[in-house]
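Let us begin with a simple case.
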Amino acid sequence: MKRPVIGVIPYERADGSGRYVPDGYLDGVREAGGEPRYIDYVDFPLDAVEALADELDGMVFTGGKDVAPENYGELPWPELGPVLPDRDALEIPLVKAMFARKKPILGICR
């Protein structure tokens, strides 16, 4: 029996030295019967978002740095933390693509 493939977006390390997914997320996907697939947002080909959504059976959008307010029509506010434009560029269309396909999405924080 094929295990469902669940995409997982990584966190950015606080010191900016790279990306990672906490073991608990990966273990949780496995324990629930899925196969986690690491989806790196840096240099992701945005013309491949629709194909990615077709391939995945579900998606975990991990927490992390703030979404840039201009993505939802707002101006930055004083408490705005660091943003990750590459991550926003992938996550926003991927959320829409997964939603359109009625595939499960788990969004954590962000």
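The second case is a distinct protein. As before, the sequence precedes its structure tokens.
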Amino acid sequence: MPSSLLDADYCRREFLKRAVLTTAAGWSLQIPPVASAAETAGGLQVAPFKFDVTPPIGHSCCGGWIKPIEVVDDGLEAVGVVLLGAGKPIVLCAVDWTGLLNQAHVQWRTALAEGAGTTPDRVAVHCVHQHNAPMACVEAERIVAAEGDLPHILMMDFFKQCLDRGRSSVARAIQEARPLTHVGWGQGKVVGIASNRRVKRDHDGKVLAMRGSACKDETLIAMDEGLIDPFCKTVTFFNGEQKVASLHYYATHPMSYYADGRCSSDFAGLARKQRQQEEPDCLHVYFTGCSGNVAAGKYNDGSQAMRPQLTKRLYDGIVASEAKLERVAVTAGQFAWKTAEILPPPRQSLHADKIAAQVATKSAPVVSRNRPAYELSWLHRIEKQIPIVLSSLHLGGVKLLHLPAEMFVEYQLRAQRLQPDNFVCTAAYGDGGPWYIPVKEEYPNGGYEVSVAFCEPEVDDVITAGMTHILQT
């Protein structure tokens, strides 16, 4: 993969020279061709990989506006699989970080693609979204570093080390790839974790209060769960009777407590690690679904005692999802990889000059300066015409959907309705550049999530069009 793929001008030229479909709102949606199974050389194989991405002491957490890493309670990992034998290799990866945004996400996909001998458009990288972890945006780091008095968003030497580890880890894994003969799927209900954040509203539907990852307001706790997807979904790759890798999908913010300087993969990572310890010969991967408006607030008071309880509840859901796997033999002809590229313009309220002035206001709190750097990074990305890639892997009647940022759970449920006869698993928190992505009906209702969304409501239309296309057989 040429290094020029990271060059913004190259990306812009490549994006613009291809045919695009444009919605009435002026949003771009590009549909690249589907990879042909005729490219297949040999049988299907799966290559599990895992590498350490634990940040060094002093590294910022969640963008630099909460306490940086002071101690590591448990390490952070990037975990995934390479699928071989159905065209160019396909890479699926989950990372125990808060986010990978804009150029940082492109660089991760490119590094893993180089390790696998494929192209970045056939790589899906998603963050689990724990908050005591890095939120990587190369451009935002450049912006804050230029100020000279702000905490770093990203230690670039560490970031580059992670890219090198990923590249080499994937390459090594391919050398030990195992036959992929069967795919299994199942789901189990998770009890006592997910609850909708946007539950207290006035008679017009406007949001008055929210439940976060933790909540101590008895009134909010007493309210119903609200709209969630209660199921953990699992897809397992087999070599004969042997489980080689299990991919787990569940939609909730994965934090019990945070902002204390203690690096942790939190309850989602701990549940995965517990399952991994039980089944060392099967790699377990955890993807966070569309959770922009879903968290554990109804069931979590933020105390340290709740972390092991939430861990057990999610672990139980993972085990339940694997208890009765449906299982079928697979061939390369049943595999398809489909992508769509979107380039949603920013909210009209975002003005580069005003945002740059916020970042430069030295009397303002760090959060009021670092966070706008992410807005400015999004504007710079749009100027350079670097699209976001949506992708879907079809495994016969199983479809894995890969979406960006902090999507509302409605998108995940919508994807399932679009394919009622198929088993659809959704991973969000891919390219985090757009920050939150509410459904368009929720924009008039306000609330925190809407206030920090970087796109206009029409992003709903273009993402829905994109995922409708890539989920079609």
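Residues 99 and 450 are 18 Å apart (CA to CA). DSSP finds twelve helices and 26 strands in the chain.
Keep these points in mind for the review questions at the end of the chapter.
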